[in-house]
Design goal:
Blueprint lengths: L15 H18 L3 H15 L7 H8 L3 H13 L1 H8 L6 H25 L3 H25 L6
Helix pairs in contact: 1-2, 2-3, 3-4, 3-6, 4-6, 5-6, 6-7
Length: 156
Amino acid sequence: MGTLELTGRVEVSYSPEALQVAALNREATVAKRAGDWARACELLAQAKAIEGDAYAQTRLAKFLQQAGRLDEALAEIQWLIDRSHARARANASPRDGAVMTQYMRLVELVGIYDDAILICKRAKRADLQADYEARRAAYESLRAKLGALSGEDWVY
């Protein structure tokens, strides 16, 4: 038998907004390394403003905490939590059913809570850390149950 050779080319293009967000994230990293937390936070806030409700990173919250702005960091965490359902729906494909969409939301929430726990730990706020740990455990339990009920082998 002969061999079959497949050749092809994949092109990836990014929107101007995505390129701008990537540049802002790079600049924020440079500012962080220079110890300019205020500038780093401002750059990430600009990236968030461009992405709007689609913004799903906890990086701004972590930078705010490291800048000594814990209340703002936790407000950012709450902002991400509040918009998690809309992001899950927006990111789901038409083939994904409600169960998969909810599963995706739970995966995102567990990640947000992981970072909220880290933020509280860094800020030495054991009281808040315990609260976020309890919430994370509840969402992780729901995620595991939903995955088991679906009979699917979802990995995120």
